[in-house]
Amino acid sequence: MTSRVGPRAVGTNGSDFKHREKVAPHYQMSASLKSEVRKLNIVHLLIWLLVAAQVTVSHLNLVSHDTVSMPYQWEYPYLLSVLPLLCSSLSLPKNNISYLVISMISAGLFSVAPLIYGGMEMFPVAQQLYRHGKAYRFIFGFSAVTVMYLVMVVAVQVHAWQLYYMKKLLDSWFNATQEKKKK
């Protein structure tokens, strides 16, 4: 142990730090990627809560349909996107490759696919709003198609970054296990 106070050890000038052990690069990479995936999981959870709140409020008639419109069809399968979120959260503490792979596959099915379908479902409504200025669904006075397209733009970016970082994390974990098997 070094002492911050007092004389320096005899025979050293302070440049003897190069022989000390360092953290392997794949462990550093794993830690930083886990942090990014956790941050994106939190943003994904917030988006999911917004969609779930709209679906719940409209189906339970908590407010009038003039205030919060009925959800679009793509929002129902998007609610299943909580499954990849749970799988990725379960994979992080113990570097569980299986859960991470399941999370990546189910993210494509339950997160990205509903967003693609939603973009196609809402396109005619957005086109009508653009051409004629007529909107028939509203969320707190704003056009529902505009609000949901904004949500979709953020969601697509979040899911793309999640898949990117999870793939990098999977590669990092896989390389670490291959190095252990070689020894």
What's the quick description here?
This protein is mostly helical and 183 residues long. It has helices at residues 25-59, 75-78, 82-91, 97-132, 144-182; strands at residues 138-139, 142-143. A two-stranded antiparallel ribbon has the order 1-2.
Description:
α4 runs antiparallel to α5. It is built from 5 helices and 2 strands; from the N terminus they run ααααββα. It has helices at 25-59, 75-78, 82-91, 97-132, 144-182; strands at 138-139, 142-143. 68% of the residues lie in helices and 2% in strands. The protein is mainly alpha-helical and 183 residues long.
Strand order of the largest sheet: 1-2
Count of distinct strands: 2
Strand percentage = under 5%
Treating each run of at least 4 consecutive H or I residues as one helix, how many helices?
A: 5
Q: Compute the average pLDDT.
A: 88
Q: Report the order of strands and helices.
A: HHHHEEH
Query: Alpha-carbon distance between the termini?
Result: 31 Å
For the biggest sheet, the summary is: 2 strands, antiparallel
Instruction: Give the overall form.
Output: elongated
Please give the radius of gyration in angstroms: 24 Å
Relative helix content: 55-70%
Q: Given the helix and strand composition, which structural class is it?
A: mainly alpha
Spans of at least 5 consecutive residues with low confidence: none
